[in-house]
What we know:
Layout: E1 3-7, E2 10-12, E3 18-25, E4 34-39, E5 46-51, E6 58-60, E7 68-73, E8 78-83, E9 92-97, E10 115-119
Parallel strand pairs: 2-10
Antiparallel strand pairs: 1-3, 3-8, 4-5, 4-9, 5-6, 7-8, 9-10
Amino acid sequence: QAQFVESGGGLVQPGGSLRLSCVASGFGLGDFAIGWFRQAPGKEREGIGCISGDDGSTWYADSVKGRFTISRDNAESTAYLQMNNLKVEDTAIYSCSNAAPACSGTIGDYWGQGTQVTVSS
Length: 121
């Protein structure tokens, strides 16, 4: 069954860092654009960034620009989300998908279950 599997979430203090992983299971990343999304309690899911499947270019939402970095390793079928200087408002369930039209590349419709990130002192 093709899907993404996220990991790396947890509890971190404000100002701390986490790196999330997104592993493609049952298929390769190929030239899929990969997006990262988050959903906080009581809020709609928002796209926070993506990486293209062709030239590796990236796009970030203003809320995370300068603090978060997306990368990918096709050989490992894995995309990453490095999160630095985390804020309380970054608390959410983070998930990845190849349904990422904000970045160039092939578009799919696979999603992961998500991983919880909690920023609290």
